[in-house]
Amino acid sequence: PLALYLFLFQVLILRQNVLEQGLITAGLVAVIFGLMLFMEGLKLGLMPFGEVIGNTLPKKSGLGVVLFIALLLGIGVTFAEPAIGALQAVGSIVDVRKAPYLYALLNNWANTLVLVVGIGVGLAAVFGTLRFLNGWSLKPMIYAALFPALGLTIFCMMDPELNKILGLAWDCGAVTTGPVTVPLVLSLGVGIASAAGKGNSSLSGFGIVTLASIFPITGVLGLAVYLSMIVSPESIIAASQAGVAQSSSSWLQETPYMEIIAGIRSIVPLVLFLFLVLKLLLREKVHEPGILAYGLFLAVIGMIIFNIGLSYGLAKLGSQSGGFVPAAFIPLGSVEGSPLYTYSLGVSIALLFAWILGFGATLAEPALNALGETVENLTNGAFRKNMLMMAVSIGVGFGISLGVLKIIFEIPITYLLLPGYALGILLTTFSSEEFVNVAWDSAGVTTGPITVPLVLAMGLGFGDAVQAVEGFGILSMASICPILSVLIMGIWIQFKTRRANFQKINLLKGQEAL
Predict the structure, then answer these.
(1) pLDDT tens digits for 237-278?
(2) Is residue 478 within 8 Å of residue 399, measured between CB atoms?
(3) DSSP string spanning 300-347?
(4) What residues contact 469, with CB distance under 8 A and at least 6 apart?
(5) How far, in Å, CA of 166 to CA of 480, rounded?
(6) Which residues contact 171 (CB under 8 A, 6 or more apart)?
(7) By the 8 A CB rule, do 193 and 63 touch?
(8) Which end of the chain is more exposed for a tag (fewer CB within 10 A), N or C?
Protein backbone atom coordinates (compact mmCIF):
# COMPACT_ATOMS: atom_id res chain seq x y z
CA PRO A 1 0.00 0.00 0.00
CA LEU A 2 2.83 2.45 0.78
CA ALA A 3 4.54 1.87 -2.55
CA LEU A 4 1.23 2.24 -4.40
CA TYR A 5 0.50 5.49 -2.54
CA LEU A 6 3.93 6.93 -3.42
CA PHE A 7 3.52 5.88 -7.06
CA LEU A 8 0.04 7.43 -7.43
CA PHE A 9 1.05 10.64 -5.63
CA GLN A 10 4.13 11.05 -7.83
CA VAL A 11 2.23 10.42 -11.09
CA LEU A 12 -1.11 12.16 -10.38
CA ILE A 13 -0.20 15.06 -8.06
CA LEU A 14 3.44 15.77 -8.94
CA ARG A 15 3.04 14.77 -12.63
CA GLN A 16 6.37 12.94 -12.60
CA ASN A 17 7.07 9.47 -13.98
CA VAL A 18 8.62 6.93 -11.63
CA LEU A 19 12.21 6.42 -12.78
CA GLU A 20 13.69 2.89 -12.97
CA GLN A 21 10.27 1.29 -12.44
CA GLY A 22 11.43 -2.28 -13.14
CA LEU A 23 14.37 -2.08 -10.75
CA ILE A 24 12.28 -0.49 -7.97
CA THR A 25 9.48 -3.06 -8.40
CA ALA A 26 11.98 -5.94 -8.20
CA GLY A 27 13.51 -4.31 -5.11
CA LEU A 28 10.10 -3.98 -3.42
CA VAL A 29 9.33 -7.65 -4.14
CA ALA A 30 12.72 -8.55 -2.63
CA VAL A 31 11.92 -6.46 0.47
CA ILE A 32 8.57 -8.22 0.98
CA PHE A 33 9.96 -11.71 0.30
CA GLY A 34 13.11 -11.12 2.38
CA LEU A 35 11.17 -9.72 5.33
CA MET A 36 8.75 -12.67 5.18
CA LEU A 37 11.63 -15.18 5.35
CA PHE A 38 13.43 -13.17 8.02
CA MET A 39 10.37 -12.96 10.32
CA GLU A 40 9.71 -16.70 9.93
CA GLY A 41 13.37 -17.44 10.70
CA LEU A 42 13.19 -15.10 13.69
CA LYS A 43 10.22 -17.04 15.07
CA LEU A 44 11.79 -20.48 14.53
CA GLY A 45 15.49 -19.81 15.09
CA LEU A 46 15.90 -16.87 17.48
CA MET A 47 12.79 -16.55 19.68
CA PRO A 48 13.15 -20.01 21.29
CA PHE A 49 16.63 -19.01 22.48
CA GLY A 50 15.32 -15.86 24.14
CA GLU A 51 12.48 -17.67 25.90
CA VAL A 52 14.62 -20.58 27.17
CA ILE A 53 17.42 -18.30 28.36
CA GLY A 54 14.94 -15.91 29.99
CA ASN A 55 13.23 -18.73 31.93
CA THR A 56 16.40 -20.63 32.88
CA LEU A 57 18.98 -17.91 33.49
CA PRO A 58 17.60 -16.54 36.82
CA LYS A 59 17.31 -20.08 38.24
CA LYS A 60 20.94 -21.02 37.53
CA SER A 61 22.79 -17.68 37.76
CA GLY A 62 23.09 -14.68 40.04
CA LEU A 63 21.61 -11.27 39.31
CA GLY A 64 24.96 -9.90 38.07
CA VAL A 65 25.29 -12.61 35.42
CA VAL A 66 21.64 -12.13 34.38
CA LEU A 67 22.13 -8.40 33.87
CA PHE A 68 25.43 -8.92 32.01
CA ILE A 69 23.76 -11.34 29.58
CA ALA A 70 20.89 -8.86 29.11
CA LEU A 71 23.47 -6.14 28.27
CA LEU A 72 25.26 -8.32 25.70
CA LEU A 73 21.95 -9.43 24.19
CA GLY A 74 20.86 -5.81 23.76
CA ILE A 75 24.09 -5.02 21.90
CA GLY A 76 23.78 -8.14 19.72
CA VAL A 77 20.18 -7.56 18.64
CA THR A 78 20.97 -3.99 17.54
CA PHE A 79 23.44 -5.25 14.94
CA ALA A 80 20.73 -7.64 13.68
CA GLU A 81 18.09 -4.92 13.18
CA PRO A 82 17.17 -4.50 9.47
CA ALA A 83 16.74 -0.72 9.89
CA ILE A 84 20.34 -0.33 11.14
CA GLY A 85 21.46 -1.26 7.63
CA ALA A 86 19.31 1.55 6.27
CA LEU A 87 20.93 4.00 8.67
CA GLN A 88 24.42 2.98 7.58
CA ALA A 89 23.42 3.08 3.90
CA VAL A 90 22.56 6.80 3.99
CA GLY A 91 26.06 7.83 5.06
CA SER A 92 27.30 8.35 1.52
CA ILE A 93 24.44 10.80 0.77
CA VAL A 94 25.54 13.34 3.41
CA ASP A 95 27.59 16.29 2.09
CA VAL A 96 30.78 16.41 4.17
CA ARG A 97 31.20 20.16 3.58
CA LYS A 98 27.76 20.98 4.98
CA ALA A 99 27.83 18.62 8.00
CA PRO A 100 31.33 17.20 8.66
CA TYR A 101 30.55 15.54 12.03
CA LEU A 102 27.36 13.98 10.63
CA TYR A 103 29.37 12.63 7.69
CA ALA A 104 32.07 11.24 10.02
CA LEU A 105 29.53 9.47 12.26
CA LEU A 106 27.84 7.78 9.30
CA ASN A 107 31.05 6.83 7.46
CA ASN A 108 34.34 6.61 9.36
CA TRP A 109 32.63 6.02 12.71
CA ALA A 110 29.65 3.98 11.43
CA ASN A 111 30.54 0.77 13.31
CA THR A 112 31.23 2.73 16.50
CA LEU A 113 27.88 4.50 16.06
CA VAL A 114 26.02 1.17 15.85
CA LEU A 115 27.99 -0.15 18.85
CA VAL A 116 27.03 2.90 20.93
CA VAL A 117 23.37 2.47 19.92
CA GLY A 118 23.66 -1.21 20.87
CA ILE A 119 25.10 -0.36 24.29
CA GLY A 120 22.13 1.95 24.81
CA VAL A 121 19.73 -0.90 23.98
CA GLY A 122 21.73 -3.22 26.27
CA LEU A 123 21.46 -0.78 29.18
CA ALA A 124 17.72 -0.51 28.47
CA ALA A 125 17.51 -4.31 28.75
CA VAL A 126 19.37 -4.17 32.09
CA PHE A 127 17.18 -1.45 33.61
CA GLY A 128 14.04 -2.97 32.13
CA THR A 129 14.93 -6.32 33.72
CA LEU A 130 15.55 -4.62 37.08
CA ARG A 131 12.17 -2.95 36.71
CA PHE A 132 10.51 -6.34 36.11
CA LEU A 133 12.19 -7.83 39.18
CA ASN A 134 11.50 -4.90 41.52
CA GLY A 135 8.14 -3.66 40.23
CA TRP A 136 9.45 -0.13 39.70
CA SER A 137 7.26 2.60 38.24
CA LEU A 138 8.13 3.68 34.69
CA LYS A 139 7.57 7.40 35.31
CA PRO A 140 10.79 8.16 37.28
CA MET A 141 12.77 5.99 34.84
CA ILE A 142 11.49 8.08 31.92
CA TYR A 143 12.44 11.32 33.71
CA ALA A 144 15.92 9.96 34.57
CA ALA A 145 16.53 8.74 30.99
CA LEU A 146 15.33 11.98 29.34
CA PHE A 147 17.34 14.33 31.59
CA PRO A 148 20.82 13.55 30.11
CA ALA A 149 19.40 13.26 26.56
CA LEU A 150 17.78 16.71 26.72
CA GLY A 151 20.81 18.19 28.52
CA LEU A 152 23.22 16.98 25.80
CA THR A 153 20.77 18.18 23.15
CA ILE A 154 20.87 21.72 24.57
CA PHE A 155 24.69 21.53 24.75
CA CYS A 156 24.98 20.41 21.10
CA MET A 157 22.46 23.05 20.06
CA MET A 158 24.93 25.74 21.14
CA ASP A 159 27.63 24.42 18.76
CA PRO A 160 26.93 25.23 15.07
CA GLU A 161 28.64 22.00 13.88
CA LEU A 162 27.28 19.63 16.54
CA ASN A 163 23.82 21.09 15.99
CA LYS A 164 23.73 19.23 12.64
CA ILE A 165 23.91 15.77 14.26
CA LEU A 166 20.86 16.26 16.51
CA GLY A 167 18.42 14.91 13.92
CA LEU A 168 20.50 11.74 13.48
CA ALA A 169 20.86 11.23 17.25
CA TRP A 170 17.13 11.43 17.93
CA ASP A 171 16.34 9.34 14.83
CA CYS A 172 18.59 6.58 16.22
CA GLY A 173 16.11 6.12 19.06
CA ALA A 174 13.42 5.21 16.54
CA VAL A 175 15.64 2.89 14.50
CA THR A 176 16.48 0.57 17.41
CA THR A 177 13.01 -0.67 18.32
CA GLY A 178 12.40 -3.04 15.43
CA PRO A 179 11.29 -6.64 14.82
CA VAL A 180 14.46 -8.20 16.32
CA THR A 181 15.06 -6.05 19.40
CA VAL A 182 11.55 -5.82 20.80
CA PRO A 183 10.55 -9.53 20.78
CA LEU A 184 13.95 -10.91 21.86
CA VAL A 185 14.62 -8.45 24.67
CA LEU A 186 11.00 -8.65 25.86
CA SER A 187 11.04 -12.47 25.85
CA LEU A 188 14.19 -12.38 27.98
CA GLY A 189 12.80 -9.79 30.40
CA VAL A 190 9.36 -11.39 30.77
CA GLY A 191 10.99 -14.81 31.16
CA ILE A 192 13.18 -13.46 33.98
CA ALA A 193 10.17 -11.81 35.64
CA SER A 194 8.17 -15.08 35.40
CA ALA A 195 11.04 -17.12 36.83
CA ALA A 196 11.32 -14.66 39.71
CA GLY A 197 7.59 -14.97 40.41
CA LYS A 198 6.81 -11.42 39.29
CA GLY A 199 5.72 -11.98 35.70
CA ASN A 200 1.96 -11.81 36.22
CA SER A 201 1.75 -8.04 36.52
CA SER A 202 -0.27 -6.33 33.81
CA LEU A 203 2.76 -4.06 33.25
CA SER A 204 5.31 -6.87 32.76
CA GLY A 205 5.64 -6.35 29.03
CA PHE A 206 6.19 -2.59 29.12
CA GLY A 207 9.18 -0.36 29.75
CA ILE A 208 12.11 -1.90 27.88
CA VAL A 209 10.93 -0.56 24.52
CA THR A 210 10.65 2.95 25.97
CA LEU A 211 14.14 2.88 27.47
CA ALA A 212 15.59 1.26 24.32
CA SER A 213 14.41 4.27 22.32
CA ILE A 214 15.84 6.88 24.76
CA PHE A 215 19.23 5.50 25.90
CA PRO A 216 20.73 5.29 22.35
CA ILE A 217 19.99 9.01 21.87
CA THR A 218 22.21 9.89 24.83
CA GLY A 219 24.91 7.53 23.54
CA VAL A 220 25.00 9.06 20.04
CA LEU A 221 25.04 12.61 21.44
CA GLY A 222 27.90 11.65 23.78
CA LEU A 223 29.82 10.07 20.86
CA ALA A 224 29.37 13.24 18.78
CA VAL A 225 30.67 15.42 21.63
CA TYR A 226 33.70 13.11 22.02
CA LEU A 227 34.31 13.23 18.25
CA SER A 228 34.25 17.04 18.31
CA MET A 229 36.94 17.02 21.02
CA ILE A 230 39.43 14.90 19.05
CA VAL A 231 38.75 15.82 15.40
CA SER A 232 38.19 19.20 13.75
CA PRO A 233 35.67 19.75 10.92
CA GLU A 234 38.49 20.81 8.58
CA SER A 235 40.39 17.54 9.09
CA ILE A 236 37.22 15.50 8.39
CA ILE A 237 36.66 17.38 5.11
CA ALA A 238 40.32 17.01 4.10
CA ALA A 239 40.36 13.28 4.96
CA SER A 240 37.16 12.65 2.98
CA GLN A 241 38.54 14.42 -0.10
CA ALA A 242 41.80 12.47 0.15
CA GLY A 243 39.81 9.26 0.58
CA VAL A 244 37.78 9.97 -2.56
CA ALA A 245 40.98 10.56 -4.53
CA GLN A 246 42.58 7.28 -3.33
CA SER A 247 39.48 5.09 -3.17
CA SER A 248 39.38 1.94 -5.25
CA SER A 249 36.21 -0.12 -5.39
CA SER A 250 36.53 -3.51 -3.67
CA TRP A 251 34.37 -6.50 -4.62
CA LEU A 252 33.31 -6.59 -0.95
CA GLN A 253 31.59 -3.23 -1.44
CA GLU A 254 29.58 -4.31 -4.48
CA THR A 255 26.13 -5.89 -4.73
CA PRO A 256 25.33 -8.66 -3.85
CA TYR A 257 28.51 -9.42 -1.87
CA MET A 258 28.03 -6.43 0.42
CA GLU A 259 24.45 -7.51 1.30
CA ILE A 260 25.51 -11.16 1.82
CA ILE A 261 28.26 -10.17 4.26
CA ALA A 262 25.93 -7.74 6.09
CA GLY A 263 23.21 -10.42 6.40
CA ILE A 264 25.60 -13.04 7.81
CA ARG A 265 27.25 -10.53 10.15
CA SER A 266 23.85 -9.41 11.48
CA ILE A 267 22.47 -12.84 12.41
CA VAL A 268 25.24 -15.44 12.90
CA PRO A 269 27.21 -13.75 15.76
CA LEU A 270 23.96 -13.16 17.70
CA VAL A 271 22.91 -16.81 17.34
CA LEU A 272 26.38 -18.04 18.30
CA PHE A 273 26.25 -15.89 21.43
CA LEU A 274 22.81 -17.24 22.41
CA PHE A 275 23.99 -20.81 21.69
CA LEU A 276 27.11 -20.42 23.88
CA VAL A 277 25.05 -18.97 26.74
CA LEU A 278 22.67 -21.93 26.49
CA LYS A 279 25.38 -24.62 26.32
CA LEU A 280 28.27 -23.30 28.42
CA LEU A 281 26.55 -21.14 31.03
CA LEU A 282 23.17 -22.83 31.47
CA ARG A 283 24.20 -26.40 30.46
CA GLU A 284 20.89 -26.79 28.62
CA LYS A 285 20.22 -28.99 25.60
CA VAL A 286 19.18 -27.42 22.33
CA HIS A 287 15.65 -28.65 21.67
CA GLU A 288 14.77 -29.46 18.05
CA PRO A 289 18.17 -28.44 16.59
CA GLY A 290 16.94 -29.15 13.04
CA ILE A 291 14.14 -26.57 13.28
CA LEU A 292 16.51 -24.04 14.90
CA ALA A 293 19.05 -24.52 12.09
CA TYR A 294 16.28 -24.15 9.51
CA GLY A 295 15.10 -20.95 11.24
CA LEU A 296 18.66 -19.58 11.30
CA PHE A 297 19.04 -20.33 7.57
CA LEU A 298 15.75 -18.54 6.81
CA ALA A 299 16.75 -15.52 8.92
CA VAL A 300 20.13 -15.13 7.17
CA ILE A 301 18.73 -15.62 3.65
CA GLY A 302 15.81 -13.29 4.46
CA MET A 303 18.13 -10.59 5.76
CA ILE A 304 20.32 -10.81 2.64
CA ILE A 305 17.33 -10.57 0.26
CA PHE A 306 15.86 -7.74 2.39
CA ASN A 307 19.14 -5.78 2.22
CA ILE A 308 19.30 -6.16 -1.57
CA GLY A 309 15.68 -5.04 -1.88
CA LEU A 310 16.42 -2.14 0.45
CA SER A 311 19.22 -0.90 -1.82
CA TYR A 312 17.23 -1.17 -5.05
CA GLY A 313 13.61 -0.77 -3.91
CA LEU A 314 12.72 1.16 -0.77
CA ALA A 315 15.78 3.42 -0.67
CA LYS A 316 15.42 4.40 -4.34
CA LEU A 317 11.65 4.89 -4.12
CA GLY A 318 11.84 6.95 -0.93
CA SER A 319 14.70 9.10 -2.18
CA GLN A 320 12.93 9.66 -5.51
CA SER A 321 9.59 10.56 -3.89
CA GLY A 322 11.29 12.85 -1.39
CA GLY A 323 13.24 14.51 -4.19
CA PHE A 324 10.13 15.11 -6.33
CA VAL A 325 7.70 16.35 -3.62
CA PRO A 326 9.36 19.81 -3.44
CA ALA A 327 8.47 20.23 -7.14
CA ALA A 328 5.03 21.19 -5.85
CA PHE A 329 6.38 24.49 -4.50
CA ILE A 330 9.91 25.07 -5.89
CA PRO A 331 11.27 24.60 -9.43
CA LEU A 332 13.49 21.52 -9.70
CA GLY A 333 15.81 20.45 -12.48
CA SER A 334 13.27 17.96 -13.81
CA VAL A 335 10.44 20.50 -13.93
CA GLU A 336 10.36 23.09 -16.69
CA GLY A 337 9.79 26.70 -15.68
CA SER A 338 7.87 27.37 -12.48
CA PRO A 339 6.72 25.05 -9.67
CA LEU A 340 3.52 23.04 -10.16
CA TYR A 341 1.50 25.00 -7.58
CA THR A 342 1.66 28.27 -5.69
CA TYR A 343 4.14 28.22 -2.81
CA SER A 344 1.58 28.02 0.00
CA LEU A 345 -0.53 25.40 -1.80
CA GLY A 346 2.58 23.41 -2.72
CA VAL A 347 3.83 23.36 0.87
CA SER A 348 0.34 22.32 2.04
CA ILE A 349 0.35 19.45 -0.49
CA ALA A 350 3.80 18.35 0.74
CA LEU A 351 2.58 18.33 4.36
CA LEU A 352 -0.60 16.46 3.44
CA PHE A 353 1.52 13.92 1.54
CA ALA A 354 3.68 13.40 4.66
CA TRP A 355 0.64 13.13 6.97
CA ILE A 356 -1.10 10.47 4.85
CA LEU A 357 2.18 8.57 4.49
CA GLY A 358 2.69 8.49 8.28
CA PHE A 359 -0.93 7.68 9.04
CA GLY A 360 -1.14 4.83 6.51
CA ALA A 361 2.26 3.36 7.34
CA THR A 362 1.44 3.22 11.04
CA LEU A 363 -1.95 1.58 10.59
CA ALA A 364 -0.18 -1.12 8.54
CA GLU A 365 2.37 -1.93 11.29
CA PRO A 366 1.71 -5.45 12.72
CA ALA A 367 3.27 -4.49 16.06
CA LEU A 368 0.67 -1.76 16.58
CA ASN A 369 -2.16 -4.25 16.13
CA ALA A 370 -0.57 -6.51 18.75
CA LEU A 371 -0.10 -3.60 21.16
CA GLY A 372 -3.72 -2.51 20.64
CA GLU A 373 -5.07 -5.95 21.59
CA THR A 374 -2.85 -6.08 24.69
CA VAL A 375 -3.93 -2.63 25.84
CA GLU A 376 -7.63 -3.40 25.35
CA ASN A 377 -7.27 -6.51 27.53
CA LEU A 378 -5.24 -4.75 30.24
CA THR A 379 -7.69 -1.83 30.55
CA ASN A 380 -10.76 -4.11 30.47
CA GLY A 381 -11.97 -2.43 27.28
CA ALA A 382 -11.69 1.16 28.60
CA PHE A 383 -8.95 1.89 26.03
CA ARG A 384 -10.17 0.12 22.91
CA LYS A 385 -7.77 -1.21 20.26
CA ASN A 386 -9.20 1.02 17.53
CA MET A 387 -8.86 4.12 19.71
CA LEU A 388 -5.20 3.39 20.38
CA MET A 389 -4.43 2.66 16.73
CA MET A 390 -6.11 5.88 15.61
CA ALA A 391 -4.35 7.94 18.32
CA VAL A 392 -0.92 6.53 17.41
CA SER A 393 -1.47 6.83 13.63
CA ILE A 394 -2.70 10.44 13.88
CA GLY A 395 0.31 11.25 16.07
CA VAL A 396 2.76 9.73 13.58
CA GLY A 397 1.06 11.57 10.70
CA PHE A 398 1.51 14.91 12.45
CA GLY A 399 5.07 13.93 13.46
CA ILE A 400 6.17 13.20 9.89
CA SER A 401 4.48 16.43 8.72
CA LEU A 402 6.40 18.40 11.36
CA GLY A 403 9.61 16.68 10.26
CA VAL A 404 9.00 17.72 6.65
CA LEU A 405 8.19 21.27 7.81
CA LYS A 406 11.49 21.27 9.71
CA ILE A 407 13.38 20.35 6.53
CA ILE A 408 11.55 22.86 4.27
CA PHE A 409 12.13 25.86 6.54
CA GLU A 410 15.34 24.51 8.13
CA ILE A 411 13.84 24.84 11.61
CA PRO A 412 16.39 23.76 14.28
CA ILE A 413 15.14 20.41 15.55
CA THR A 414 15.55 21.53 19.17
CA TYR A 415 12.74 24.05 18.62
CA LEU A 416 10.43 21.09 18.05
CA LEU A 417 11.95 18.43 20.32
CA LEU A 418 12.36 20.42 23.54
CA PRO A 419 8.74 21.73 23.70
CA GLY A 420 7.47 18.29 22.59
CA TYR A 421 9.26 16.38 25.33
CA ALA A 422 8.51 19.07 27.92
CA LEU A 423 4.81 18.60 27.13
CA GLY A 424 5.32 14.83 27.24
CA ILE A 425 6.83 15.05 30.73
CA LEU A 426 3.97 17.30 31.89
CA LEU A 427 1.30 14.94 30.53
CA THR A 428 3.15 11.94 32.02
CA THR A 429 2.95 13.54 35.46
CA PHE A 430 -0.85 13.74 35.28
CA SER A 431 -1.41 10.34 33.61
CA SER A 432 -1.94 6.98 35.31
CA GLU A 433 0.83 4.37 35.24
CA GLU A 434 -1.03 2.19 32.71
CA PHE A 435 -1.44 4.97 30.14
CA VAL A 436 2.16 6.13 30.63
CA ASN A 437 3.41 2.61 29.85
CA VAL A 438 1.24 2.34 26.74
CA ALA A 439 1.97 5.84 25.42
CA TRP A 440 5.76 5.72 25.72
CA ASP A 441 5.97 2.19 24.31
CA SER A 442 3.69 3.12 21.38
CA ALA A 443 6.51 5.26 19.94
CA GLY A 444 8.60 2.11 19.52
CA VAL A 445 6.04 0.09 17.58
CA THR A 446 5.48 2.81 14.97
CA THR A 447 8.95 2.54 13.43
CA GLY A 448 9.07 -0.82 11.65
CA PRO A 449 11.47 -2.24 9.05
CA ILE A 450 9.45 -0.80 6.15
CA THR A 451 8.66 2.64 7.60
CA VAL A 452 12.20 3.48 8.78
CA PRO A 453 14.13 2.99 5.49
CA LEU A 454 11.36 4.65 3.49
CA VAL A 455 11.08 7.71 5.74
CA LEU A 456 14.87 8.02 6.12
CA ALA A 457 15.41 7.95 2.35
CA MET A 458 12.46 10.29 1.78
CA GLY A 459 13.78 12.81 4.31
CA LEU A 460 17.28 12.81 2.83
CA GLY A 461 15.91 13.11 -0.72
CA PHE A 462 13.67 15.96 0.41
CA GLY A 463 16.56 17.70 2.18
CA ASP A 464 18.76 17.38 -0.90
CA ALA A 465 16.01 18.82 -3.16
CA VAL A 466 15.47 21.91 -0.99
CA GLN A 467 19.25 22.13 -0.35
CA ALA A 468 18.89 21.69 3.41
CA VAL A 469 21.96 20.93 5.52
CA GLU A 470 20.60 17.49 6.49
CA GLY A 471 17.39 15.53 6.12
CA PHE A 472 17.24 13.80 9.50
CA GLY A 473 14.68 14.43 12.23
CA ILE A 474 11.49 13.06 10.67
CA LEU A 475 11.67 9.77 12.62
CA SER A 476 12.30 11.58 15.91
CA MET A 477 9.19 13.69 15.40
CA ALA A 478 7.29 10.52 14.47
CA SER A 479 8.27 9.18 17.92
CA ILE A 480 7.29 12.07 20.21
CA CYS A 481 3.98 12.97 18.54
CA PRO A 482 2.27 9.56 19.08
CA ILE A 483 3.41 9.68 22.73
CA LEU A 484 1.62 13.01 23.12
CA SER A 485 -1.52 11.88 21.26
CA VAL A 486 -1.86 8.69 23.36
CA LEU A 487 -1.21 10.54 26.65
CA ILE A 488 -3.85 13.15 25.74
CA MET A 489 -6.35 10.42 24.85
CA GLY A 490 -5.48 8.58 28.08
CA ILE A 491 -6.14 11.68 30.19
CA TRP A 492 -9.45 12.16 28.35
CA ILE A 493 -10.43 8.54 29.09
CA GLN A 494 -9.45 9.00 32.76
CA PHE A 495 -11.58 12.16 32.92
CA LYS A 496 -14.59 10.42 31.34
CA THR A 497 -14.22 7.41 33.67
CA ARG A 498 -14.05 9.63 36.77
CA ARG A 499 -17.03 11.67 35.64
CA ALA A 500 -19.05 8.49 35.02
CA ASN A 501 -18.09 7.16 38.46
CA PHE A 502 -18.99 10.50 40.07
CA GLN A 503 -22.40 10.44 38.38
CA LYS A 504 -22.99 6.86 39.62
CA ILE A 505 -22.10 7.88 43.18
CA ASN A 506 -24.48 10.86 43.02
CA LEU A 507 -27.21 8.63 41.61
CA LEU A 508 -26.74 6.10 44.42
CA LYS A 509 -26.81 8.89 47.03
CA GLY A 510 -30.01 10.23 45.51
CA GLN A 511 -31.61 6.77 45.62
CA GLU A 512 -30.58 6.35 49.27
CA ALA A 513 -32.06 9.75 50.12
CA LEU A 514 -35.35 8.77 48.45
Answers:
(1) 988 877 655 544 555 566 777 778 877 877 888 888 888 888
(2) yes
(3) HHHHHHHHHHIIIIIHHHHHHHHHHGGGGTS--TTS-SS-SS-HHHHH
(4) 98, 99, 164, 410, 463
(5) 15
(6) 87, 456, 472, 473, 474, 475, 476
(7) no
(8) C
